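Hi there, hope your week has been kind to you so far. Would you mind checking whether the tokens look sensible for this chain? I owe you a coffee for this, so here goes:
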Amino acid sequence: MQLARAVQVAVEPFVQVVQAAQQVQHSIREALEPLQRIREAFRSITPDQFSAFQKAIAGLADDWLQRDVVEKPVFRLFTKLGLTGLESYLTKSELLQVLKLSKGKGNEAVQAYLFRRFRRAKYQVLNRMVRGWWRVPYMRKRKKAIRAAIAAHKKRQFDLAIPALLPLIDGLAAEVVSGTPNLRKKSIYAKDAAASYNAEEAEVWSECVEQVVCSLIYKDYDFRTSKRPPSSINRHGILHGRIVDYGSELNSYRVILLLNVMVKMAENKMNKTIP
């Protein structure tokens, strides 16, 4: 018995080594199993399927390249022009055309191209945009005034369209941010809504919205200290009667497009609250 115990004590470390080696082998097999499955899956792919796979990967690479080469510079341009939400109405080829026009003929050519796009076929794009506004109760209740403002825009009566539509941005923004915790009492709702949108989307177009709201249309403007308004589309200056020359087609589209972005924000919030 003593001899058996002595043998057992002497052999036990070697048994532990063997068991540890077996566990390592088992772990290696488990680690390699997914790789073996991937290899077997690739072996089962037909040449046609592999070709389609290569094309799909190439398409993803093109999309990323398109994003860096096209979207970033074009939305920097839209930010400079104060035009928001155009990602919903322009194709990639049209975005490329915008960049070409900007580099070759300047921003006035870009504006002319975009405004023709909205005027085409008796304002087909603009009409479709406005019809989408009625899905939001806030806009539906103000349909008569909105239609009159859009009709004035189409007649190039921009001095009438702009001040009629500007307050609606404020009203919608208030609905978008309502219920937001820790909201300041004297907060500018349009700025808060734009900041929230950019934080949620975190894309080049949402950054464009926040920049246009905060640095152009709703930029701080103190009548007592500022000799001139920060821009011809400053909301504070227009609605308080301090700006005279605001009635341009560019400014009218700035307001319409930003209003459309606010409508989409309000619609998204409305859809989230529906059980």
Summary: The CA atoms of residues 176 and 266 lie 5 Å apart. The first helix runs from residue 2 to 44. The chain has a mean pLDDT of 86. The chain has one domain: 62-273.
